[in-house]
Amino acid sequence: MKKILTLFLVVLFTTSLFAQKKELKAADKAVEGQQFTEAISLLNSIESLMPSAKESYQAQFYFLKGKALYANGTGKIIEANEAFNKALKIEKGNGKYTDDIKNIQNTIVTKIADDAGKLYSKAIEKMNNPDSVEESKPLFEKAAKKFYMVYAISPQDTAYVQNSGLAYYFSGNYNKSIEQYNELLNTGYTGISKTFSAVNAISGAREIFASEEEMNKRVKMKLASDPKVEERPSQRNEIVKMIAKNYIALKDNEKALEAIHEAQKENPNDYGLLVDEANVYFAMGNNQMFKEKLEQAVTINPTDPTLYYNIGVMKMELNDLDGAIESFKKALELKPDYIDAINNIGASVLKKAEAIVEQMNNSLSDFDKYDKLQAQQLQIYREALPYYEQVYQMDNQNISVMQTLMGIYENLEMYEKAKEIREIYNQLK
Fold first, then answer.
1. pTM score, two decimals?
2. Which partner from 89, 136, 247, 279 sits 20 to 30 angstroms from 351, CA to CA?
3. Are residue 84 and residue 128 in the same domain, yes or no?
4. Which tens digits make up the pLDDT trace of 32-44?
5. For residues 59 and 94, what is the distance between their CA atoms, to the nearest angstrom?
6. 260-273 exposure pattern, b = at least 16 Cβ within 10 A, e = fewer
7. How far apart are CA 347 and CA 332, in angstroms?
């Protein structure tokens, strides 16, 4: 009985081995014939036998499964890569299928990275066109997913997660962007790295290689040329800055400040961080800190007109109108066509009339005082007028400016001018 049982087990093992070889051979033939669905079906039929199969059969199985899933780049890329990695693990980086798998993986990474880069470039073009800004967002989202796919396939290419985080930021998916950046930080990523690339002899495209050894090997075989080794400095500060920008976009001011202060530990005088910090304080209603941070930023970069403009806005909020006008004029010295600064000089001048109008309303029975106050009011309108006229010349479609101009013209009894503006205003309205 024992001999019969032993014989039965031997027959069973032999049958199993025969089935493995037969199906693997058939699957190999199907893959070569690009019958990928048939190959997957054949491989599925023997997958349960793989744990007890020879390592050579296991490696062949996962290699064929990877190729069938990959389907020449049209199939399930992530699942294919998982199968390839299992084959590499079995072969311990030195086996019959290792080189073929690495070549396919390089091709996969290069293609996906190239697709992501093209999507990202197209999204940037859309974003820079005022008429197609919204069209850029889904393109950024697609690019972000592909950038992350590169990392999923090739974990050593961590920098692509950073690319993904930036693309998600531009897409407006701020929570996903924060998630990507935090993933980088949690892995201890610094961004200090070397990239190895060379131009593919067939496609002419520049390929990224996992190692300098792999790059040199391809160049030596005449499969690639123009090898390059590029070094990248630390990116941690940039990552934390982008986390802060995402929180600012989400209007989570407390977390934005936390991220900014974390980034400032490495670079306390970073100009961009100071401006971001100032804007967060402004959003929180802390005008004093807003002012301090902007003034600190001015000492670092005294030629940025936007800084002086923002200081002017803050002084307007604090009703320091002369100080606001001074800041807006400084912005104009640095950028003569700064339309918002010109407009806000006019607005700051006009704002001075508010207190006078209030006094006029309280002096309706005192004609002499009322007339003096009215003369002051009209003088303020005359001072403000040239700024609004200049803005109108630069942007003759601005409804708000047209409304202000009509009011000033009527108060100054410049009725022909008021009529001219009103006709255009009514057409636009």
1. 0.60
2. 279
3. no
4. 888 888 888 888 8
5. 11
6. bebbbeeeeebbbb
7. 15
